[in-house]
Every structure is written in C-alpha cells, then in structure tokens.
Predict the 3D structure of the following.
Amino acid sequence: MFSLTLAGARAALRRRDFSARELTAAYLGAIEALNPKLNAFITVTSELALRQADAADTALARGEAENLTGIPLAIKDLFCTEGVRTTAGGRILAPFVPPYESTVTANLLRDGAVFLGKANLDEFAMGSSNMTSAFGPVTNPWTRPGDASPLVPGGSSGGSAAAVAARLALGATATDTGGSIRQPASFCGIAGIKPTYGRCSRWGIVAFASSLDQAGPVARTVEDCAILLGSMAGHDPKDSTSADRPVPDFAAACQRGVKGLRIGVPREYRSDDMPPEIEALWQQGLAWLREAGAETVDVSLPHTKYGLATYYIVAPAEASSNLARYDGVRFGARTEGADLTEMYESTRAAGFGAEVRRRILIGTYVLSAGYYDAYYLRAQKVRALILRDFTEVFARVDALLTPTAPSAAFAQGERMDDPVKMYLNDVFTVPANMSGIPGLSVPAGLDAQGLPLGLQVLGKPFDEETVFAVGAALERAAGFTALPSLRAGG
C-alpha cells in the first residue's frame, strides 16, 4: 500500500483491491510507529479517520466515489477543523477547538477525504525549518549517509512534507506565505504547489500575512498535487480575496506535454555564490524541457533582488496586525496579571515564541508613526514593481524555471543563531508570493550527500494548468525514485 501514489491508491480503492478502512488503518499504524521519531503530527485523529473510512467504503460500495473518497490525508495544523484541536504550532492556541471547518478542509471532506490528523508546523507558520513549533521540531525522514544528525524538513509546512515523504499520508494540506509549501517539498523530495493567490479560500486558516498566505497541497507526485488542488480550490463568498473562477481539470493538464512552450530563465536567480550542484541541476532541468520540445529563453526580473527585503517588511507588518487578536481576551490561552495591561503582556510573552515575537516587533516598528512611509509604504511600491516584472516577462514566455531553494536540507541547529541566514532560505520562493503567481516545486535530483533538490516552475496568474504540464514533464525526465531512509513500508 505504501508504494502507491494518491492516484494509484484511488484507482485501487475503486477496484476494491482493498478497503478504505484497511488503507486508513495501515497509515494510522505507520504514524504510530514513526511519528515518535519524526514529530510530523501534533494531533492524530484515529477514531475520526476510521469513521470517515467506513463512510468512504459505503460510498464506494454504492458506486458513489468522489474525487478523494477514502484517501488518507494530513491536515496542516493551521486549518481550522471542526471539533479537532487547531494550534497553529503555538502555545497560545494550544487549547483551541474550532466550532467550524475551514473552506479548504470542508471541500476535501465533501470529496470524501479521510483526515489522519493535524500536521506540525513552525509557530504561526513563521519559519523555514520547522524548528519554531511550540510542540517540538519536525525531523526530516531523509538523512545524510553515515551521519545520524537529524535534518530539518523545511518550513513552515514541514510536518505536512515530512508526513508525505515518510509515507504517513498520501498527501497533505499546506500553506505558503514566502515559500512554505515549495521549500519543504524540495527538502523532503516531494512535490508541492502554491497556487495563484485567490485560487483557494483562506477562510478558516489561521492568518500570518493575509495578502501573501495561500493554501495548496503537497504530495508524492505532480499528478497527486493536481488531484488535491482540484478539490481544495474554488470560489468562496466568505473570503473577499477568493477568485470567482472555474476550477480546471488540473490532473488532465499533467498529460499535455511542453512542446512549443517558451520557458523563461531569469538571470537574477543566478548568483556567484550559488552551489555548483544547484546550478547544474537547473541546467539539467532546462535541457530536459528542451528535449521535450520546449524553447528556453533568457529573461530578466530586475526587481527580484529586492523581493526578500520587501517580504520581510510586508509579512511582519501584516503579522503584527493579525496576531493582535491573541491577547487573552478574544482568542487563545490567558496568563493572568494584576490588571488588564499586565494580563495582555503576560499572555503574549508566555504565548508567543521567540521567532513570532521577533516578527511582531519588526512589523510593529515598520507600521509605527514616522516609519510607515519609509518602510511599509515603500515596500508596497517595490512589490508593485516585482509584479510588473513578472507581467512583462509572461507576455513573452509561458512559464519560468528556477531552483526551489539555495541548498538541500540542513541539520537541526545549523543556521539557527542567525535569523538573516535563515531568511535567505526563501530567496527563490518569495517573489511568487509578492506577485501572487503560482509556483510548483518538483523533486529533480540529489546533492553530493544524497539529499533531494527541487526545481521550481513559476507560471502566469491562474494558469496552474501550464505549471502542472511543465512540472509533470520535468518529473518524467528526472525519474526521481529516491526514498528517505525513515519511511513506512521500507
């Protein structure tokens, strides 16, 4: 069972090769065996999953299968799930049990999915390593040969990515504010897509930076991501930023091929200090696409170099505003004080970890009187220029190909004492969030230490179909079959 992709498991369920209950029980057993080592799940919902699996078997017996009937998934613990604790990876929300379901997870339930539990994440999705969770770090199921040092799975969706890579789920929901789907997918050797901003509803997802956050899936293959996105996406009147557009058949787009497509190669994504193996993989990816019938074109995105600095003004500013609600009165756990002010201070000091406090402080500073124009307003103007660059380039090309991350997964504890170095992990992914365009990470090779590396496909707004077509072509050419050492069934 564990060797099956999501698409393969779906076909096997419909053939009745095994039941949804058997499939779910196998994954719950894998979680029981491996989660103590990986810490990929904060909450495991065994009883709920088995009830949902039984309902799926009833639907399958009646010939009423939906898109995901009987498919076991992990849900990032940023998505509100009715009656199931939702923590956002933080102490302050540790006791929170939502009385409602997020739109994305409601769509998955509508289509018959089985929820195995809530996946670990960086606190309030703030991090590139999954080391900031109040519930402990997630361990990447990949290891360096001959080196037992635990590696980070990437962040913030590290629990989701680790669960999928270790065969603890067939797919998972994730969110991406500055690369939090694509970077963990790259680190864990799986696929993951951040769709166009507005493609998936944000309603019921705990907010980090509202103009950047976007939900998307991680899964073992590009096709599996396409199947999941087909269920997750859609217009939602409860979200004012949700796009009222039809949801295409993303899975069908994976079979299109790339013949005749023009693939842009942005020169600004190349730097003198880029590791040679990242550059070599990038060139190999371009060669694969040319062999498949695409044309590669050098392009320029001149304002890309400002993307990271702009992001770390806009995102903390929005975070400081969004997290103001966690004050011990309206939301979250409370720490008592002698008066209201002391209660606020005590609650937030005890409830937020160091990285969240750092970003709140940065955000409050750039929004404060005397600095708003100098920092936040200027950052929004640069953001508009970044979007203009992409718009002009996409008038000439169909998609872009870049590396996903500047390195493979690093060890837990490495880089942790230097926040700026940690922020540089997002250098290739942030521009897609600043401009709202879709981005897909595809596992494409291994570094010299045997760790996975990803290539990133960027596309035009609401043209995920072309992104999937290019990603699937890369996947076929790469033939990536390497597996992590720590996994179910292996």
Summary: The chain has a mean pLDDT of 95. The two ends are 11 Å apart (CA to CA). The CA atoms of residues 178 and 430 lie 5 Å apart.
